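Why Delta-aminolevulinic acid dehydratase? Reviewers of the renewal asked for a concrete example.
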Amino acid sequence: MTTNQDFKRHRRLRSSGSMRSLTRENHVRTEDLIYPMFIIEGENIKQEVPSMPGVFQVSLDRLNEELKEINELGIKAILLFGVPKEKDEQGTGAFIEDGMVQEATRAIKKEYPEILVVADTCLCEYTSHGHCGVIHNGDVDNDASLKLLAKTAVSQAQAGADIIAPSNMMDGFVTFIRQALDEAGYTNIPIMSYAVKYASAFYGPFRDAADSTPQFGDRKTYQMDPANRLEALREAESDMEEGADFLIVKPAMTYLDIVRDVKNKSNAPVVAYNVSGEYSMVKAAALNGWINEQELVMEKLTAMKRAGADLIITYFAKDVAKWLNQ
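Here is what the prediction returned.
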């Protein structure tokens, strides 16, 4: 048989598992993962979130159970959310000294100082109305909210948080938080900004886990329209100019084009947030035997890395760490 030498033989680099591993362009590593955790007020609580199999709300007295596993798996960073019993219109629980995130941070840094604590800096879990800021005349008051968000960031840094992650999408939030941190002496604490956060339908299970569903209206006046691309670049550029050290794109799976755009336009680490709805869909399909969970999850996370993500916030972090360790 005559061989046609006019075409390229790309299959040479796919000929075996070892060859494919040698030539692989993108890798998901345990060090790339940030695991979200929900700290709930109370005692002896470790309850599974109904819409998120394998994800738990954990009280402070049982926090070490989770931390021990996370540490043994080699996960280097966790993202903390607080779930308090008492809420008010100002979201006071977000910035008080003995708030859920603050207390959890102290406990973590005492037992596992090497684990990086990323503190979610928002008010929605703590406000009685479920919005990410102060309400005035039926809408979120941007500038009044900034003062409380800055106060929250400083209290989290005082508790020992390694990274402040503001998720509120208020205009100017990076400027206010950076200034407040610097004035309080925390010039070395970086800001991981939720720079690009869409008003997405993929957040439903998270709102169950964090008990943060808005009691009226929606968040479309401050979170972004899923139809918009250039707006994302404006948001990311503003946050970089204001002092952000990391840029989060949320959600990840249906916004990989935005991850790539942000990566191309900035020199900061880009973080893809693999959100709750993306997690729950895969878990539901896996529990029904419709998919190979491990293969699908690794394909998704690899796609995020290929799109330009340096880090990935994901509820799959423990599962992925176990697979990689195997």
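The chain has one domain: 27-325. This is the kind of structural detail the renewal will allow us to pursue systematically.
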